[in-house]
Amino acid sequence: MARSVSTGNALVPGEDGQLGAFDVVIVGGGAAGITVAAGLRKYSRGGRNLSVAIIEPSDRHFYQPGWTLVGAGVFTMKQTERPEASLIPPGVCWIRAAASAFEPERDRVTLPNGMHVGYRALVVCPGLQLNWSAIDGLTETLGRNGVCSNYSADHAEYTWRCIQALDGGNAVFTQPAMPIKCAGAPQKIMYLAADHLRRHGKLRDVGIDFMLTGEAIFGVPFFVPPLLATAKGYGIRLNYRHTLTAVDGPARKAIFSVTGADGAVSELVKPFSMLHVTPPQGAPDVIRNSPLANEAGWVSVDPATLRHTRYANVFSLGDAAGTSNAKTAAAVRLQAPVVVRRVVALLTGGPATATYDGYGSCPLTTEYGKVLLAEFTYGGKVEPSFPLDPRVPRKSNWLLKTRFLPYLYWNRMLRGSEIDIPHKPRRFEDAR
Ligand SMILES: Cc1cc2nc3c(=O)[nH]c(=O)nc-3n(C[C@H](O)[C@H](O)[C@H](O)COP(=O)(O)OP(=O)(O)OC[C@H]3O[C@@H](n4cnc5c(N)ncnc54)[C@H](O)[C@@H]3O)c2cc1C
């Protein structure tokens, strides 16, 4: 139980400089942290009362999957935002700070003021880091000069203004090296922009370019042919092995490093009317520089149990976890119950059998009103929830994306409900 003095949500440190000690400390109160906290509260009922704290610096929580729709003018940013305080489950202590260091040998997390928070079990889910400053000139011009990004709460609405203003020149969409959160998001907004232009008779006036660091439009080969067909249908030019390195906003020029098939690297200067940037992404520095990190900087966990590979009382899920699933809220929905069960088993001595199969999903908005729903597990195994060919963009999936999934997130998942539509391997004809 907590050793600190608690006044509402405010904690006063003990004499040892320890802010508190809890059964469970959760680092990060985003999609993963809130879902795990809510799940633990449900499990705590019936005599297994666990003290739980969330370390989270932000007072705002966003439904990030909605940002594609914000950039396309379907949602407002306000619709994707709630106060963090309204989501912290009753009885859970919110420590409003960012974790600055991890000391797993001493079962404690350090805060920027030097205070420590102790735990019996630790759940690490601070998301991933968006490395905006890795692109020269980007931070100075983001939100102006036609430079926008759905990856920023401050600039996704500007994406929609840029799309509406398009009437000539190039609309350029970038995608950095993987992994990124929601790997399909860079192309979702591109298709919606193209569809908007088509509906307004301007598609022929604007050249659309997709500039990808990688060599494939999507990581799961099963979904590549329909996505290539979608891009072709809009006349989108695909430019593989092109990495954005710098932006000159006032001159409306984007600079790319291009790696040729022979490995030779050259530079390309691309003029744009609109530039949608997906920033380079990586593990948070606080994880990368900690004993919890794997070689790539993510939290080193077993892919099935989500338990740390070296510290038995540490778990991780969400974007920060060093697992190979798609970094999505959909993944969090299925990871959280595994972490909750395993933490409870660890603390109460029960059996620990729950495992995660790598499920993730990516609803690709191929046009206004239609979505191709890509669902898959570890190794890119296609495992849809519905017995319909998932390569076909459908109206029903648009309703899922715009209505059902936001409802599921706010009203079920973040409240600890484990509602799920079971996914499984299914066979479909080869041809679309
Ligand atoms: C444009 C876009 C489109 C997307 N589309 C989809 C989609 O269609 N479907 C889908 O399933 N997913 C989608 N996602 C991905 C999804 O939003 C993320 O995968 C999901 O939010 C991950 O949850 P998380 O809790 O790991 O990270 P987050 O939800 O990002 O939460 C991390 C939390 O940790 C906090 N934090 C950071 N550093 C620290 C620290 N040092 N100490 C304590 N707390 C810290 C942050 O403030 C934040 O609240 C999309 C994301 C974006 C940006």
Walk me through this protein's architecture.
- With 432 residues, the protein is α/β, with parallel strands linked by helices.
- It has three domains: 5-128 and 283-348, FAD/NAD(P)-binding domain (3-Layer(bba) Sandwich); 130-280, FAD/NAD(P)-binding domain (3-Layer(bba) Sandwich); 360-415, no CATH class.
- The protein is built from nine helices and 24 strands.
- It has helices at 31-44, 67-71, 138-141, 156-165, 185-199, 224-233, 285-288, 329-348, 395-412, and strands at residues 5-7, 10-12, 18-27, 52-55, 60-62, 81-83, 93-95, 101-103, 108-110, 116-124, 129-130, 147-148, 169-175, 206-212, 237-239, 242-248, 253-259, 265-271, 274-276, 281-282, 314-316, 360-367, 370-377, 381-382.
- Strands 3, 4, 7, 8, 9, 10 and 21 form a seven-stranded mixed beta sheet that branches. The protein has a five-stranded parallel beta sheet with strand order 12-19-13-14-15, with helices on one face. The protein has a three-stranded antiparallel beta sheet with strand order 16-17-18, with no helix packed on it.
- Helix 1 runs parallel beside helix 8 (329-348).
- The longest helix has 20 residues, at 329-348.
- Residues 1-10 have low confidence and may be disordered.
- Flavin-adenine dinucleotide binds at residues 27-33, 55-58, 64-65, 67-68, 98-99, 125-127, 150-151, 181-182, 185, 284, 286, 318-320, 327-330, 332, 363.
- Residues 22-143 form the FAD/NAD(P)-binding domain.
- It holds the Pfam family Pyr_redox_2.
- This is NAD(P)/FAD-dependent oxidoreductase.
